[in-house]
Amino acid sequence: MMMETSTYSVSVDLVTLETILQQRLQAKLGEVAPLQVNCYVKQETVLVVVQHPAPMLAHPNRAFRLVEQVFQEEAIEQQYRGLVYLKVQGRSQPYAFHTYQPSPPTQDVAEQVRRYQPEGEMGQWAAHQASEAPQPPALPASQGGKPVQESSAPSEIDVDVVESSSSSGTVEPSQSLETPHLETEKTEKAEKTQKTEKAEDSDLAFAPDANGAPTDTPEPWLPQDLSPEPEKTGRTLSEKVGLSVIIAGIILGIVVFVNTLYVLTRPCVLGSCESLGVAEDLAAEAVDTVQTPTTGQAILQAQKQLKQAIALLEAIPNWSGRYEDAQALLDTYHQDEQELDRLVAGLKSASKAANLSQNPPLPAEQWEQSAEHWQTAIARLETIPPESAFYSYTRQKVREYRRNLRMIKQRQEQEEAAVADLAAAQEAAKIAQVRQNIAQTLADLQLAYATWQTAINRLEAIPPNTTPYAEAQDELAAYQSKLEKSEELKNREVLAKDAYSQATSMAQLAQAAEKRNQWTEATRRWREALNYIQQVPSNTLYSTKTQPLMEQYAQSLTEAQSRLQESLQVRQAREELEEICSGEMRICVYSVTEKLLSVRLTPTYIEKVRQNARQARNNNNIEGQVDILDHVFALEQGLIRVSDRTGIPLEIYTQDNILAKRHTP
After folding, report:
1. Cα separation, 9 vs 41, whole angstroms
2. Which residues of 410-427 are buried (b: 16+ CB within 10 A; e: fewer)?
3. Which of 384, 459, 496, 538 has the smallest number of CB atoms closer than 10 Å to its CB?
4. In this structure, how many other beta carbons lie within 10 angstroms of the beta carbon of residue 157?
5. Is residue 354 very low, low, confident or very high in pLDDT (cuts 50, 70, 90)?
6. Are 472 and 459 in contact (CB under 8 A)?
7. In sequence order, which residues have a C-beta less than 8 Å from that of residue 393 and are 6 or more positions away?
8. d(Cα 289, Cα 307) in Å, to the nearest integer?
9. CB of 266 within 8 A of CB of 320?
10. Of 367, 394, 415, which one is at a domain's C-terminal end?
11. Maximum CA pair distance of the chain?
């Protein structure tokens, strides 16, 4: 850093002052960071040179106000005159400057009163106009600073200083115009270019600090009493003409006086141009407020301030020496006004969107309206160009609004899906009830049950944060009850089907056993078939089919049991006849059916009996003859007992197939 010697005692720590100014400016003017601050002292003037990358500051008064605040905090303004230059790095000349005067000492009260009388103000202004004040070295046109009131900085001060880099300050996030629940992000300063204006006229740049306009004193030629004297009778024509001329002159003088007073009392015509400085302050403050807003109301206040600044500049007449400066600022401020109007319009659309999304659940139409307002807000903010001072803030809000729009779209889709699910569930319930009422088969009941389940699944898919949720919960309880009933009907029908199928299967097996004369198996199968058919529940689709089958199976079982009994008798008869007929000599042969026991004595046995009988008779063996008769009688009785036990009629034949004996049990 370059240090200049001073012929006066220097009580300012320039290193500390440079550090404070650089930190303060970088924190507040992030759009031109990194910047470099160099301070010098010459005579009674503290010179501050602020260098920064392009572009030029659109509102240089913001930088001047920050420097002035530091001067006040460090008590520099009480002893030193301040001169501030704003310079783009790489350029030889600054594009804006501003001066600060030391705080004036306390003066005599009478002198202060006299100074601010019209005569005093006019006297000061006239004295200043008579004297020529020197300009600062290489003084450029003002780009937003207040008019320089005096300059004592020498021309030999080198304003070209070495550039240095530093970190830019950060800006805390602010609250937007919309409701507090919506998201916000950190804002960033945006760059804005500004055209370099022509240098100001030297005597306007150093206009005196007086604010009052000269007050006209009564002209000596004006009459003290304008009340006409009573008309005298007998006036001459010359007297009447003279009086008319006097009155016309008075009126003309008043008109000229009023017009002159109007011209001279317009802003920035006489004295310093306070309107220009105030307008710049208002505009700079408005830009600062929008870049780091604390509330939505603060943005509206910034919009009002910017309009006030424009109104002040528009009030400067074209005969003012600062008219061109005012018009140059108006071009910038009108652009800022249009961009800020679009920003405010976007924030208001976002506020409407946020208000529409309060107190969910909401119908899909309201979510759609909210989404449309979010889209409108985004579209309005996206019209703000990158070079705008409000661009950083608008990009933050655009990102935030897009997130909100996505969320609103999701809620809208969720609401529409919930409404569709409720309608689909109600329609499915109607279909399920109809199918259940007209079901003719198990498949019909199973389809009805599946339809009830579909209706319930649709209701369970409806989320709690939707308008159909409450109605869906009521419907769900009713549908659950009907689903349970449908399931009961289905299960009973499944049981009926299984029992019916088992019964018919057992009946088929019984019939097959009967064909094989396996009456034991047939009896068992018929008994199982009858048991299964009795298990078919009543009030089912199969119950109407079971009644005739039940009677048929019972009858078949009885017949099978009867045949089984006969079969058992036949078997018993065979066993007993075999025991009787068999021995060392085959006594008889037999055939057994359920209806007849047919026994035929063998020729060998008959021949043996005859031989024994002849021998006993020939030997006159009475006992032998008796034994032969007892044997034949015992054989006959044995065969009759078999017939009696089996209940099958008996026929005994000789070897010549001659019926010897018939017995009916």
Report:
1. 10
2. ebbebbbbbbebbebbbe
3. 538
4. 19
5. very high
6. yes
7. 174, 187, 190, 290, 291, 293, 343
8. 14
9. yes
10. 415
11. 227
Instruction: Based on the fold, state whether residues 62 and 128 are members of the same structural domain.
Output: yes
Q: Report the pLDDT value the prediction gives residue 299, as an integer from 0 to 100.
A: 92
Asked whether the beta carbons of 57 and 86 are under 8 A apart, the reply is yes
Which residue in the block uniquely carries the two structure tokens 């009493």?
225
Q: Is the pLDDT of residue 607 over 70?
A: yes
Contacts of 355 by beta carbon, 8 Å cutoff, 6+ apart = 179
Range of the domain at 43: 1-169
SS (H, E, C) 107-166: CCHHHHHHHCCHHHHHHHHHHHHHCCCCCCCCCCCCCCCCCCCCCCCCCCCCCCCCCCCC
**Number of structural domains in the chain:** 4
Q: Are residues 322 and 406 in the same domain?
A: yes
Position 447 in a domain: no
Helix/strand/coil for 284: helix
Q: Report the alpha-carbon distance of residue 99 to residue 104 in Å, rounded.
A: 15
CA dist., res. 109 & res. 552, Å (int): 136
**In this model, does residue 193 exceed pLDDT 60?**
no
Nearest to 5 by CA among 40, 37, 33: 40
As a whole number, mean pLDDT of residues 321-343 equals 92
For the record, the structure tokens of 308 come out as 């006030």
Q: Pick the closest to residue 651 from 583, 591, 603 (CA basis).
A: 591
CB 97 within 8 A of CB 83: yes
Alpha-carbon distance of 189 to 27, in angstroms, equals: 10
- Which residue in 395, 409, 456 sits closest to 429, CA to CA? 456
- From CA 73, how far away is CA 411, in angstroms rounded? 53
